[in-house]
Amino acid sequence: MIRRFTWCVLLSLALTGSAFAGFLNGGFESGDFTGWTQGAGYWYGGMNNLDPVNYLPGGQFYDMSANASAVVGPGLDPNTDNNLNMVYADSYAARVNDSYNDYSVSVISQTVANYTDPSIYFAWAAVLQSSHGPTDSDNFGLSLIDDTTGATLYSVYYNSANTPPGLFTQSSSDWFYTAWQVQQLDVSAMVGDTFTLTLLASDCPYGGHAGYVYLDGFGAAPPPPGGAPEPATMALIGLGLSALAAIRFRKR
Predict the structure, then answer these.
(1) Where in the chain are the domains?
(2) CA 188, CA 194: separation in Å to the nearest integer?
(3) Is 234 helix (H, G, I), strand (E, B) or coil?
(4) How many other C-beta atoms are found inside a 10 Å radius of the C-beta of residue 7?
(5) Which of the 8 DSSP states describes residue 242?
(6) Which residues are registered as beta bridge partners of 93?
């Protein structure tokens, strides 16, 4: 009986509102890019050429030999004077592009259909190497689109020539970086719509400077810093342990 109850508790935990409900591998906890579409290519100039569509499969600049993205574990980013943890929550995060200055552009994207949760959350942190001007610096763009209506729900774009104080900090090695930025989008009025999150990060077009971005916690609930269990999950675990103790006491 105890064994059967234990399995019921585990099943309930599996079915409770996950931090990434509705999204496949939204926290990258499988250790890879399962559930995400990856793209890549090279940028040699022209702001119009930085449209993510150009680097996703079928795009005119799509070339996965340039892919510089990886799923990373906990650790401190050395280009931020070790002030930025590479993972926001749990065990893994995505790093889109890398610190090598080789013209690379890297993209990841995920679409979720018939979404019914009231909110969408995600967290990001950018690391950009000091370089040129607003049209030829390493850069990144992140957007959340309601594909059903065509509305842009969230969009940010920064390059290393546009790093507002208060959002970006300059390191001793001349890189600009942000702390983790946690975003909450209220989509309660858009029940059943289809949403796409897309992140592009690019080196400068001269092969001299790099830029990359971390992404974590794309899901229906706020990603907990350090991977702390959600209160509802902790309550369910406590309930299960109490019930197990009661059963054992009764058997005695």
Answers:
(1) 27-104+124-129+157-180+196-215
(2) 13
(3) helix
(4) 10
(5) H
(6) 72
CA-angle at 224, arms to 169 and 234, nearest 5°: 160
Q: Percentages helix, strand, coil for the chain, rounded to the nearest 5?
A: 20, 35, 45
As a whole number of angstroms, the distance between CA 196 and CA 182 comes to 17
Instruction: Identify the sign of the CA torsion 95, 72, 164, 198.
Output: positive
> In degrees, to the nearest 5, what angle opens at C-alpha 244 toward C-alphas 238 and 247?
140
Rounded Cα distance, 203 and 236, in Å: 46
Kindly report whether the global pTM for this prediction surpasses the value 0.90. no
DSSP string, 67-93: ---EEE-S-B-GGGTT-SBS-SSSS-E
For 67-96, what is each residue's pLDDT tens digit?
999 999 999 999 999 999 999 999 999 999
pLDDT digits (tens, 9 = 90+) for 124-134: 999 999 999 99
Contact between 88 and 214 under an 8 Å Cβ cutoff? The reply is yes
